[in-house]
Amino acid sequence: MKIRRDDLHVLTGSYALDAVSDAEREQFERHLRHCPSCAAEVRGLRETAARLAMTRAVPPPARMEQRVLAATYRTRQLPPLIPEHRARVPWPLAARPLPRPLPGRPLSRPFAGRSLPRRAAALAATASMTGAVALGVAQLTTRHQPQQAAVARVMGAPDARVETTGASGGRVTVVVSAALREAVVSATGMAALPAGRVYQVWVMGPSGARSAGLLHGQLLASGLRPADRIGITVEPPGGTMRPTTPPVAVLPA
Amino acid sequence: MSRPEVRQWPPAEEPGPDLAASLAQVARGDHRAFELVYGELAGPVYGVVRQVLRDPAQSEEVAQEVLLEIWRSASRFDPARGSAAAWALTIAHRRAVDRVRAENASSRREQKAAPAPDDGDVAEVVATTLEHQRVRRCLGGLTELQRESIKLAYYGGYTYPQVAELLGVAVGTVKTRIRDGLIRMRDCLEVTW
């Protein structure tokens, strides 16, 4: 349906509230490129709509945070638009987002479940840019940095999955490949420990815990077995043979 | 005496971090900055999605997609074109509405009866903050038709022709009432964009 040009100006409100059909949306966005006053009005009305949204804020389920944060580690980001292109792209959805679920088909549940075999290929694709991934996973300065090749191997493993949890005011992230029986452990933002205390990483299995080393930047844990978990404890300098304090974080490996 | 817990969002009346600056860091792959952004936006995103979709499980799924989309397309956020919150909430609302429309399309094909429109508010949040009170007061300053049109369109996720149908008024009338009402809201809230 073609909309008369005069009517388009009135559409600013409905457009800002997403109360238009897809066809109208596209037509109106074309119009916006040539109508600076409409664009300015849309900006203000969109801000107004956002204020309406803010009043509906409710705390989301707690599990959501971990799922979303974990997903960021296996999702490549869009490149920025260069200035010449920016004006031509409707804002804020400068790129058509991830494909919408098709009508009538079961809706995808991209975050269902802890193990993510279906997303392994996507993860592997993302993780193969090892430089970028390593940069994202560990931002601490690294002293006992494992060979980048080993880290890259785990990150790029087809079965690699990401586990993450909050710990001591920061976040611990583990990328695990069950096939390689290896995991890359890293942390950001954890509370500084008093002098003479260190964070130590353990591979915890049914028969006890063995040290995987002290937590500095990225750390590679090898020889994992199916029931193992990764734990972090606070220990005396140099670490200990066995954990002497309750773990500040435990993640599945 | 036990009272239902009234949770407030945002958690406290404290100045939030500069979202636009955080988004710029997120665009450079900064996961820590994204945690800040998540902390600020997860509640509003989930809330508005749930307002439109109603179903908690589906809302959670869509809200997760939206928040990941914020991570993915942070580089496309342009502070010259609006606030970070409006950018994120536009993505959230549109994604929720897209989901509604997709489901409506599929249920039409399956010859199912459309669900009765539900105009009740999901978990009507107590207007604890000044900002909420202000929005409520400004909504109160609209005409009945403006207010109902805006609420059905935005909170209900209906298109303006559907709103017209629900209210029994002409389509053109709803279109202009939505615009007039929103402009009035904008001025009442002193939105500066």
Structure description:
The complex is a heterodimer of chains A (253) and B (193). By secondary structure, chain A is an alpha+beta fold. Chain A has nine helices and eight strands. In chain A, α8 crosses α9. The longest helix of chain A has 19 residues, at 36-54. In chain A, 38% of the residues are buried. The radius of gyration of chain B is 18 Å and the shape is globular. In chain B, α1 (19-27) crosses α2 and α7 (160-167) crosses α8 (171-188). Chain B is mainly α and 193 residues long. Chain B has helices spanning 19-27, 31-53, 56-72, 84-109, 130-140, 144-155, 160-167, 171-188. At the A-B interface, α2, α4, α5 and α8 of A face α2, α3, α4, α5 and α6 of B.
Largest sheet of chain B: none
Our Rg estimate of chain B from Cα atoms comes to 18 Å
Rg of chain A over CA atoms, rounded to whole Å, is 24 Å
Shape of chain A: elongated
Largest interface comes to: A-B, 75 and 91 residues
Helix percent band of chain B: 55-70%
Class from helix and strand fractions of chain A:
alpha+beta
Distance between the termini of chain A: 56 Å
**Low-pLDDT runs of chain A:** 94-146
Number of helices of chain B: 8
Note the topology:
The complex is a heterodimer of chains A (253) and B (193).
Chain A: H1 5-10, H2 12-16, H3 22-33, H4 36-54, H5 63-72, H6 83-86, H7 120-127, H8 130-137, H9 148-155, E1 161-167, E2 170-177, E3 182-188, E4 198-205, E5 208-214, E6 219-221, E7 229-235, E8 249-252
Antiparallel strand pairs in A: 1-2, 2-3, 3-6, 4-5, 4-7, 7-8
Helix pairs in contact in A: 8-9
Chain B: H1 19-27, H2 31-53, H3 56-72, H4 84-109, H5 130-140, H6 144-155, H7 160-167, H8 171-188
Helix pairs in contact in B: 1-2, 2-3, 2-4, 3-4, 6-7, 6-8, 7-8
